[in-house]
Amino acid sequence: MNAYPDLKLLINGEWRSSATGATLDVINPATEEVLGALPAAAPEDLDAALQSAKRGFATWRAMSPYARAQIMMDAARLIRERTEAIAAVVTLENGKPLAEARMEIGTVVDILQFSAEEGKRLHGRIVEGRAPGVRHYVVKEPVGVCLAITPWNFPINTVAKKIGAALGAGCSVILKASNETPASAIVLAQALVDAGLPAGVVNVVFGPSAQLTKHLMASDIVRKVSLTGSVPVGKQLATLASDRMQRLTMELGGHAPVVVFDDVDIGKAVDLLVPGKFRNAGQICISPTRFFVQDAIYSDFVDAFTERAAAIKVGNGMEDGTLMGPLANYRRLSAMDSFVEDARNRGATITTGGERIGNHGYFFAPTVIKDAPDDSMVMTEEPFGPLAPMTRFGSIDEVAERANALELGLASYALTNSLDRATQIGDALQAGMVGINTVAVAIPETPFGGVKESGYGVEGGPESLEHYVVPKSIAQKPFL
């Protein structure tokens, strides 16, 4: 089933067009064909969404955590049952291979189930008072209406992370999902509606991001904002949020270093890192990206990595055997060209790839950049694409300093067979998530977040729901 759904706004439980009739084209990145016309929300649509979310919050917070959890569990079941149809939607508008889309949907199911269960465990506590007969109650109340802003690279996973935590904590949501991958958000919201979610608890809007965000954050109704996006956008939203003291969760990307020590099996290391690097065409904020390889194995590692990368089958994600799909849009092609040109100009060698594939669809070859200088663009700016820059290192102290040199700290990785080295580098790497001999650092049960300019707050783990509640202390004694 490859049907692409009708694109609508969800406001107060109803799917509708924009008040002005304005639309944006949604493009298939593999074929450059128009998939559909996306309604661009007008100010009156946004005002309606705000009022809807306000009413929805009153309804949702009044329900027991058990009743809320049942709806979320039912939605997760529906998503699992619809996996094939939803996977086709994700691949059509995002480009990733169907196998990756199915994996993403499986994670969405896990996220919703985990958030539903954690919502039942947001317990408060009783504190004995200092005066006779006085007790202090600490309760956790939902913060209110939340604005969730999600990107295109994991178009249903990131939506689930934000909606799941908010709903589990008893909040309502206005979702501003990506204009490039809107149907992925729509099918998730539809599953919630079909599961019995009350009208207004989740609202979905699309349109020019800066205009919509500014309008929504100017309202006193919005009490919490969660963004997955770029550092500059995060800083802009932080400024806007300060006007109304809105809470923020910021996941602002990364540029993950990978430290490969000389005691590893090169073949096993390449088997682990190549799929991790080129999954979703490298368009992952925690993608292994800056490869620091110890001197003794540097040349052999680069050769093996290059051979494996060159063998990756790139093509339409809907076709059997495709291992890497296109980039999300034409802008990413231009960005890749800039990174490659800068690396060449600084003396680096392109051992494979380095160019667009064909002239139809946004395909870029898996690329390995040997001897990338530390001050090159690809080593200092997040490429968010299928580029793997390589450089050599000598000592553990040296590589730790170089790996931590950037003002980004979302994920970091290291490969070694030495427990001593693993402990040292794990302690030294400055990141919210560190993977030692694995690239699987993100699961629903653990916090997902970064340090430095990679943002603050987390998504995932029990900690994620804490960002959506407010502790209230109540002191009580018998009336005299």
Plain-language structure description:
The chain has 480 residues and is an alpha/beta fold. The protein has two domains: 9-252 and 454-474, 3-Layer(aba) Sandwich (Aldehyde Dehydrogenase, Chain A, domain 1); 256-443, Aldehyde Dehydrogenase, Chain A, domain 2 (3-Layer(aba) Sandwich). It is 39% helix and 22% strand. The chain contains 15 helices and 22 strands. The protein has a seven-stranded mixed β-sheet with strand order 14-15-16-13-12-18-19, with helices on both faces. Helix 14 links the parallel strand 18 and strand 19. The radius of gyration is 23 Å and the shape is globular. The termini are far apart. The relative contact order is 0.14. The model has no long low-confidence stretch (mean pLDDT 97).
Query: Given the helix and strand composition, which structural class is it?
Result: alpha/beta
**CATH homologous superfamily descriptor of the largest domain:** Aldehyde Dehydrogenase, Chain A, domain 1
Question: What is the CATH level 1 assignment of the largest domain?
Answer: Alpha Beta
Termini gap: 70 Å
Quote the average pLDDT.
Answer: 97
Radius of gyration, rounded? Answer: 23 Å
The proportion of strand residues reads 15-25%
The total strand number stands at 22
